[in-house]
Amino acid sequence: MTTDSYSPPRLSLLQLFLRFLRFGLLAFGGPVAQIAMVKQALVEEERWISPARFNRLLAVMQVLPGPEAHELCVHLGMVARGRIGGLLAGVGFMLPGFVLMLGAAWLYKDWFVGNPAMAPIFLGVQIAVLAIILRAVQRIGTHILEDRLLWGLAAASLAATLAGVPFWIPLVAAGLIYSFAARPAVAAAVVVVAVALALLISGDAPVIQASVAASRADVIALFIAGLKGGLLTFGGAYTAIPYVRADTVGRGWVSDASFLDGVALAGMLPAPLVIFATFAGYVAGGFPGALAITAGMFLPAFAFSMIFYERLEAVVENPALHRALAGVAAAVVGVIAATLLQLGWVTALRVATPIAGLAIFAGAVAAVFLLKGKWVAPLLVVAAGAAGWLLNP
C-alpha cells in the first residue's frame, strides 16, 4: 500500500469542526489517550495519513513546545482543509475543556472556596496533586535526562529557581551549554555569564499567598503568563506549571491552594492538561482573565503548525536545534522540581494533622506509581478529597 492511498475525506468546514469537537468531548485520560483516540479514528480507520507519516509528525510535535494532542489536531485539520481547517480543528478540540473549566472555575470561586466545610476536602486534593506532579517530574526526567550533563543542568536549574533566579537565565544557559558541550571553553564562558546575570538581577522567589486573590489581575499580564507557559511546555503539560504559577501566584492574584485545585480539576476534564491555566486566569481575573491566559497558552500550538506547516519536519531535524532543546528541557525539569518543593512546603504549612497529611500523600504516591490507566488521576482526586473529609489533615 502506498502513501498515495491515504487522504482525508472531503469535509465541509462545519463537518471538520464538529469532528474535532467530538474528539474534544471525549478527550479524557491525558495526552497518551487523546493521541491514541485521534490515531485510531483518523489514521487506522479513515486513513487520512499513513501510520509512518503520523509517527514522524508525532515525533516533531514532541520536540516542539505545546500540548502534542492539540498540535496534532491542528496539523491534521490543515491536512484536510488548509490553515482555516487547522484553526477550526484546534478550536474544536480545545473548546469542550475550555467551557467545562470555565464552569468549574465559576463554581469554585463563587460557591466552594472559603466554605469551611470544603476546606479539608480541598486540602486532601491538593496533597494528592503534589503526588501527581512528583510522578510527572519522574516521568519527564526519565525521558529527558539521558546523560550526566543533562542531570547536572537540571540540578543547577533547580537550585537557581529555589534561589529566586529569573526563569529565563537557567533555560537559556542550559540550552547554550548543551549545544556547546563539545567546546568546553565556550560552555564555561556561558556558565560565567549566567552566574553573573543571576547575581545581578535575581530577585526573591515568587510570593506565596494563603487565600484567593481579592484584586483582579491585569489581562495583558495573564496573556503573557499563558504565552510563556505555552512556549516553554517541553515534555508534557506539567512543565507549564512553574511559569503560570510564577505569574499568577507570584503576583498575589491566585493562592497556591487554589492553583493546585485548578491542576486537579484539569486532570478530570476532557482537555489538554494545560487547561488548568484557564482556571488560574478565571480566579485571577474573571472571564477576561480566563480568555486571555488560555489564548496565550494555546497560541504557540496553533502558530507552530499553521506558520511552519511546510517546513516543520525539516526544521526540527536540525541536530543543533535538538541539542539546544534538550538542554532547555533539562532546565525545565529542574524548574518543575523546584516548584514542586515550593508547593509542597506551602501545603505542609496548612496541614494541621501531619500524620493524616502524610497518609494521604503516601497513598497518592503509591497510586500514581503503581496504577496505570486514564482514570487513575480523576479517581485519585476524588479519593483524596474523600480522605481529606474523613481525616481532616
Name some characteristics of this structure.
74% helix; 16 helices; 393 residues
Question: Short description, anyone?
Answer:
With 393 residues, the chain is mainly α.
Q: Topology of this protein?
A:
Elements: H1 13-25, H2 30-45, H3 51-63, H4 68-112, H5 119-144, H6 148-162, H7 168-179, H8 184-201, H9 219-231, H10 241-248, H11 256-266, H12 276-307, H13 312-316, H14 319-349, H15 354-370, H16 376-391
Structure description:
This protein folds into 2 domains: 3-93, no CATH class; 97-391, no CATH class. By secondary structure, it is mainly α. The protein contains 16 helices and no strands. The chain has helices at 13-25, 30-45, 51-63, 68-112, 119-144, 148-162, 168-179, 184-201, 219-231, 241-248, 256-266, 276-307, 312-316, 319-349, 354-370, 376-391.
| SSE run | HHHHHHHHHHHHHHHH
Main sheet?
Answer: none
- Low-confidence runs of at least 5 consecutive residues: 204-215
Structural class: mainly alpha
Strand content: under 5%
Fraction of residues in helix: over 70%
Number of domains: 2
Quaternary status of these chains?
Answer: single chain
Overall residue-averaged pLDDT value: 87
Kindly report how far apart the N and C termini lie: 60 Å
Number of strands: 0
Please give the radius of gyration in angstroms: 21 Å
The outline comes out as globular
The total count of helices amounts to 16
